[in-house]
Amino acid sequence: MASIRHVIRQTQAELETTGIPDARLEAEVMVMNVMRVARQDLFSQQETELSAQQEQDLAQFMERRLQREPLAYILGYKEFYGINLLVSPSVMIPRPETETLVEHALFMSLMGMETRELVIADVGTGTGAIAINLAIHLPAARIYAIDITDPVLDVASYNIRSHNVADRITLLQGDLLEPLPEPVDLIVANLPYIPSQRIATLQPEIQWEPKQALDGGADGLELATRLMAQASGKLKEQGVILLELDPEQMPAVAALAAQHLPESTTSIEKDLARLDRVLVINLGGEPE
Asked: What is the pLDDT of residue 47?
């Protein structure tokens, strides 16, 4: 039997040979999962040997990963903003840059939108990652989590129940803002924004994800355009929209906001890579 130290090194080398990024981290995560130990224990038990069953489980993980299946689909979960979320091939895997959307939604809710009962819509909820984190950190808020297909809503429902926030999140099925039963204070949305022709050129792992969660149409703005057209009447008087976008799309969507919500102002928030990531559309005048 091989030790944890040896197996991690061997796994890392195999991943690197296939061109998989972050090979060391992925090797550690896979070994951690087959051994069912916390990451800190992985480093304190470097000479512990894997059992035959653990080696077999790791081999099965590697067979799938070397075909460039995303690690999150192999493991069945993804960490996002400090919580673990069930993922399946029905949903897009939550990305670190989307944490910027959560952080700014929390900032605006806690500092700039003081109401007795904040009402929020998470449009295109997917795993429920955004809605769940907002519910955890904003216990007085009511949240609508919207998506269009049953398999996606099944995943979101499981995650919502797993994190004990089902009493504050209502799942709705339908097209963007159409299912909303009332105007809301805040709309957050990480909609598909990749231009159709670019999807086939992206890294192999992305090809495993559902196309409908990625494809934003010819210019990447199909869903953002429809959401802007639906927004009037779906926001309260001082409402705010937060949209995750590609940095190059900011001017075009800001122009859409000016067209459909002429009383609004816009600003831009950067992600951890210092790239323009979140467009803030504020009906209340000067953005926060």
From this structure: 84
Summarised one tens digit per residue, pLDDT across range 229-244 is: 999 889 998 899 999 9
The domain made up of 91-282 has a fold known as Rossmann fold (3.40.50)
Measure the CA–CA gap between 68 and 52, rounded to whole angstroms.
25
Amino acid sitting at position 54: Q
Domain edges within the chain:
4-67, 91-282
Q: Which CATH class is domain 4-67?
A: mainly alpha
Residue type, 134: L
Give the DSSP letter of residue 204: G
CA 257-258-264 angle, 5° bins: 80
What is the pTM for the complete model shown?
Answer: 0.91
Crossing angle (nearest 10°) for helices 129-137 and 99-107: 30
Give the residue ranges of DSSP H helices in the chain.
4-17, 23-35, 39-44, 52-65, 71-75, 99-107, 129-137, 150-162, 222-231, 250-260
pLDDT grade, residue 287 (50/70/90)? very low
Residue of 196, 179, 176, 178 whose CA lies nearest to 188: 176
59, 117, 259, 269, 283 from 266: Cα distances, Å: 50, 24, 12, 10, 9
